[in-house]
Amino acid sequence: MRALLGGAAALFFATPAMAASGEAVNPWVATAYLVAGVLFIFALRGLSSPETSRAGNRFGMVGMLIAVVTTLWTHSIASLPEIAGAIAIGGAIGFFTARRIAMTDMPQLVAAFHSLVGLAAVLVGIAAYLNPGAFGILDATGEILTVSRVELGLGVAIGAITFSGSVIAFLKLNGNMSGAPIMLPMRHVLNLGVLAGIIGLTAYFAIAPTVGTGAIFWTIVGLSFLIGFLLIIPIGGADMPVVVSMLNSYSGWAAAAMGFTLGNTAMIITGALVGSSGAILSYIMCKAMNRSFISVIAGGFGADSGPSDGAAKIDRPWKRGSAEDAAYMMKQAENVIIIPGYGMAVAQAQHALREMGDLLKEEGVNVKYAIHPVAGRMPGHMNVLLAEANVSYDEVFELEDINSEFAQADVAFIIGANDVVNPAAKTDKGSPIYGMPVFDVEKAKTIFFIKRSMGGVGYAGVDNEVFYMDQTMMLLSDAKKMCEEIVKAL
Amino acid sequence: MDFISILSIFVMACFVGYYVVWSVTPALHTPLMAVTNAISSVIIVGALIAAAAGAQADGSQVAKWLGLVGVVLASVNIFGGFAVTERMLAMYKKKERK
Predict the structure, then answer these.
(1) Of A262-276, A296-310, A352-366, B34-48, which gets the smallest average pLDDT?
(2) Which residue has the higher pLDDT, B43 or B98?
(3) What is the pLDDT of residue A325?
């Protein structure tokens, strides 16, 4: 790597590196960062279809390589072995984690990655505060520029919120911490107070003289870690898709704030892309649950499954089906629609499910998969699992594309989903999930509902009318075991 | 660069991001999160500057080490993020119709 950099440095000999000031004045350098930024745009553009997606990912890698190499070329590196070592250590950890992680654990992994971006942003912000000269953010009198101080304050604040919020999200998704909301007394007052404190201190930090502002800076950092923690602990498991998307957005804004400090176009473009990406995903998730972003952030959803309705639902009659029933009915069927949910991920049932689907297709059955936007714990969670199980992506449909087909479906096969098939969302104004777009499974001739037991209800804590319908057969078992039994029966 | 040009780039990039992300197919939303994760680690640029400059005479040693830790964290994300995206995207296949 050193030889490579040495050779590269010669190319830039005509315009020696700016040693103490990080501001890149070389137009080629600015162009290089711009190219990196454009490549990142291509990386996201590629994801518009699975065919172009892998090329997009490569664009992203090239963009990152350009950004890193450009930075190393244009700054006199006094500690190359250490930097190379740091990249090697981090790279190895990241690479091997990425290779070994189970697809069902993807939400945790993404949350963990978000926390790292957040922490890195905080560290860069602190480093810039301690060594402003290196970042070229000093004015003529040797003080940090006012505008840079605002950017630094915001950057570390957003970074710290991203970090502590993502750590909590990770612990919840990974099961180290209960997915149930944790409610602190007076939490709204507390949160707003802390938030106001951060904003006020950032403003003060910008206008106060540099001397003696250390305490303010560190207080901003501390309060921001605190608010990230406070914001996420009252949010329940079912709202995690929104939280993960929101933290994704924050990690982008943190990078953008640091980009402002460094005047670096690659960071600004990337930050804006990632920030809007996360914001759009949060919006899509909220819409798919018919909940406002504010109500998700206010938290507490899924906390109250009252014991009273728990007693009521056990008394109602329901039919129990067997794997043989399911196998027989589906073999006779013309159209089968499979609706996977988080329960499929928990049971790791995607491979057994795909095997079942393949056998049915050999029998001439038309098998389709229907995915709700909030199925699982992050956007697109179910799609990845089905892709992992080798389900062709043209058999997988989104809610609005397939919902009209339930009327023609002979069988709706629900595996590990619950709230997304609950007709109460359409009919019961008092239901907490009222207004949420759901699958019209009740229009299918027969419904098979895989569930571990009749006791539990979905994350929203609402009873589901579908359990008790005439055409419904409950398959009470572990999702994976049930699919395997159906495969045997086929 | 002056603040206004930087701000202009930022605002334009937000619009580009808005339109590009809406065109992403919902099936690829998880890879989208993974890849945005990887590219937001471009923050490594800041960490590299801190790590590189910290070792100079007037530089702060603390800043240097913070930079190095930042480089480690961002590298985890860059390599991990791109690798896991690659792994996921490789799974999205369209089977040949028999």
Answers:
(1) A296-310
(2) B43
(3) 85
pTM (2 d.p.): 0.85
ipTM above 0.95, yes or no: no
Token digits of residue A230: 């406070």
Contacts 24+ apart (CB under 8 A), A388-392: A388/A103, A388/A350, A388/B91, A389/A350, A389/A351, A389/A353, A389/A354, A390/A354, A390/B91, A390/B93, A390/B95, A391/A350, A391/A354, A391/A357, A392/B93, A392/B94, A392/B95
Query: Which positions ≥6 away from B10 have C-beta within 8 Å?
Result: A256, A259, A260, A268, A271, A272
Alpha-carbon distance A155 to A135, whole Å? 14
Tell me how far apart the 2 most distant CA atoms of chain B are, in Å. Answer: 70
The pLDDT score that the predictor gives to residue A300 is 58
- Lookup: tokens for A482: 């049930």
Tell me the residue length of chain B: 98
B60: which chain A residues are within 8 Å (Cβ-Cβ)? 127, 130-131
Taking an 8 Å cut-off on Cβ atoms, the answer to whether B6 and A63 are in contact is no
Contacts of A380 in chain B (CB under 8 A): 26-33
For A408-426, the pLDDT digits (tens) are 889 999 998 888 888 888 8
Are A432 and A424 spatial neighbours (Cβ–Cβ below 8 Å)?
no
